[in-house]
Predict the structure.
Amino acid sequence: MILGCIADDFTGAGDIAGLIAAEGMRTSLFTSVDDIGSRSCEAGVVALKTRSLPVEVAVQQSLAALELLLQAGCSQIVFKYCSTFDSTPRGNIGPVAEALAARLGVETAIVCPSFPANGRTVYQGNLFVGDVPLAESGMRDHPLTPMTDSDLRRWLAPQTSLAVAHIPLQRVRSAGLADDLAMARGLVVVDAVSDQDLRIIARAVADAPLVTGGSAIGMGLPANFRARGQIGDTPVPALSRHGPTLILSGSCSVASNAQVAAYRASRPAIAVDVERLLHGYPVLEEVDEFLVRNAADSPLAYSTAPPELSRTFIEANGGNRAALAVEELLAELATRAAARGIAKFVVAGGETSGGVVEALQPGPLQVGRMIAPGVPLLANETQTFALKSGNFGSENFLHEAVAAMEPTT
Ligand SMILES: Nc1ncnc2c1ncn2[C@@H]1O[C@H](COP(=O)(O)OP(=O)(O)O)[C@@H](O)[C@H]1O
Ligand SMILES: O=C(O)[C@@H](O)C(=O)COP(=O)(O)O
């Protein structure tokens, strides 16, 4: 293993693993730190669920993953966070990046969440989602990490004791990038609005022990190892299998709302009533009974609600208590379905996917082809997964995912 990635959530781990694998690097996704090194690969991606944990716990888990990746041989580490920079004024992006940098003995690391294929671009230090600044997108109402400032420098500064610097797009596109990086100290927000910009940046950080960013910065890194003759060109495996799928959506993003509505219009779907759940009604049994009855038809269970409604609901119901109750319920539904022999799971939402995968404990996963930008198929010997980041995928994503998991012959 020569490239190690520490992802702060499970969908993000699949996202970067898929992009690296698509560049021909033999890639494994480790769903637990205990699995690191258990499978031979060139790139190893560790899926943590640290995005919304207390800062100290997120730092400690990230450092533990780093030690194991270094022991496995990694010469470059990527800290992968969300392309919408999901964090709060306390963390966890700043503190984790700072701790990893200290352990690796580096004074500088880039900060580059840009993911143009999914409409996330960084310009003048500000993050855009499609054609609106981050703070005007659905992310301003995210249940756990509401993003209310689009200026990454301003959002990051209170999270870290390191200096926060910026390299503008003009420098990325000129010969000045390498010089600017050599001179910079601290966490350096780098503008990028196209894949081409990201590949230039990736080339410039070929020798950096630590890179931080969204998944798309990972796209350009395999070429650096290939140029040094360290890797070959491995095709991605198919990873489809026969049988019905269970779909679980705990994401309240704008995209997931549209996808749930589209799926519900033609396929069996049941909403999780979060209010009843919190008041102790047997919601788990009711939803599970529906899923058993419709198992052959790839049913969907969802708590997905419009972003502003779920945010208001969480605020009125003891903060993360509601979110955690939903995560536990969806994870338990997955566990019960797996026990009945369901082997294919589509999960929408990063925290939600983390809960489901931690409950199913699939061990190391192979990384297959992308169903949509940032969403690859993942599989072990007995189960196949598609873990969808909240805002990814077209309106028909859930139909497409079910179809993509089924072999074509
Ligand atoms: N109806 C709801 N009300 C309140 N919280 C919810 C509701 N549905 C889901 N949640 C919680 O919101 C969070 C969504 O986060 P996540 O799964 O990461 O989705 P995304 O990928 O869109 O960010 C989860 O913790 C989930 O349990
Ligand atoms: O970088 C991204 O946008 C994704 O890989 C990701 O991490 C999204 O997180 P969720 O929206 O919480 O799934």
Remarks:
- The mean pLDDT is 95.
